[in-house]
Queue: 2 jobs
Job 1
Amino acid sequence: MTTDWSQERLLIYAPHPDDETLGCGGLMSKAKRAGAEVYVQFMTVGDTADESPKGFSTAMERHTEIKKVSEHFLWDDWHMALPGDAYHLRLDSVPRVDLTRLIERESPISIARLEPTVVLVPHRTSYNQDHQATAEAVHTALRPSDTRLRHHPRLVLAYEEAADQWRAEPVDSPNLIVELEEEDLLAKLHGMELYGSQTHSHPHTRSELTLRSLSVLRGMQAGVCLGEGYHVLRHLA
């Protein structure tokens, strides 16, 4: 499958700030270099206690990081759907119908308003409940129907993150590899640097070495130097 990214309008769903860079950072760089439009729909963010060197990050800090990353990748727009601790790491408590309506029509960059040609979502096998809730809600929003009545993106992809492999059952390897140039990988790595509250040293799923190693592995599987792996959910030729 060959894609002319210059003709595409990408809409990426990120459960939290940094998921879009971890999963699609290379593609965002490649697509923008080609002339594509790129939009990011964040689902939620809140104050977070984690295992980073700092140990704690606030929602305000995360919003500041988003602005820096947006400028770095030259996003055309982004939106935070459900900010606050009532939703952060609790999206599984929000009725799917409400998440689906937001994704389908209510967000300023909803599918109905933006009419993207490519939609990218987290993989539903993630152990993280917010990732699962986002993946399932987008899946519902993109349900088959009459294309004369509802917009259907031509290409729907699930992106991968290193931690997605933490499952009791086997996880299929990506069936689509997007070839990256070194500058695309460097853009991805720098994007994660700008998420300073979320970066970690190796060994960690968000370390620079992990991201580079996964890119080398996916590239090798396609016979190229560097790549990013995706699962094809819909491809309308």
Note: The radius of gyration is 17 Å.
Job 2
Amino acid sequence: MSLLEQRYRRVLRLLPATYRAEREDEMVSAFLDGAHATADEDNPRPHWREIASVAALAVRIRLGANTTRPRHHAWGQAVRLAVLGGLGFYAATGVWTATRPPLDGTLTGLPATAAAGVVMAVAFALLATGRVRAAKTAAAVGLVPYAVEVALAADRLADMLSRPGKPSPARLPLDAVPLLVMAVPFVLVAAFAAGYHRDVRPPRLPAAVAVAPVAAGLAVAVAERAAIWLIVPTGALGEGWHWIAMWVSEAGLACLALAGAAAAHTVARLRTGRHSAAVPLALALLSAPAALIAAIRIAPGAAGEIADVMNLTAAGQALLLALCCLAMLTVGLRSLPPAPPPAQLRPAD
């Protein structure tokens, strides 16, 4: 076996084992036929375009839309549901952030993250109505404000670390929260590009679903404003608001939404007896980063009543999300169809 053939076979390890067992020799032969004859002494390597094509094929297979490969289809459906849910959440929180009142009852304006969330609302509506390419473009545009915020947060953190009086180790996780929170949308858009590939049929959801995140964001903003108007006249805002402030935040709302969705899915699963893997796996994929964000908000060295309440609430949210993630991942993995033997694998679409 030549050195070039060895390297081609190494690249093909990106593909599932069952697929390689069916097509590896054929693909290696095609690659070698298209390559220029090169001796091992010349240290030949696969072209980057060939590597990219194999990687793209691996993504399409592992996140497939072909029901003849039920295991890959289930993972593909899980990623696509997670993308739809993630876009919907950012759409709802973007509308909420753009319209929510501060403690004095006036509007907050439209910060960069709120503007990004509004763009995500457009991306969600486009995706829900089957316009996948336009939705990908809108989601990519929505990353621009996050990129600016990530750069600013990284600069602030680097400046703090370079000062003589560096932040304490207990303070560092809290200072890193903005970086982690604003990195999640980039992972979401990458999953969007990978999950909704060219083999996937565009979704066609009811029009009510397309505007549901906007309605949810407005409902949260109205509820928050009503709570402030009810509490402020009693003079209890400063005393009791910190008990619910951690829940009226993106992390808190994510915790409530995911815990509620996991509970609803569990009840529906027990009632109907259906054992779909895609929904619990999607909830696990969404719960994992949310649990990490909740956990990193804990500041063990902080002191004071408010700090204690915030730490306790963040710990509770992290634990709840971790349990949701573990439970949904267990249920989803157990519901996955068994992997087919190599002989039963059909050619790729």
Note: Residues 103-110, 344-349 have pLDDT under 50 and may be disordered.
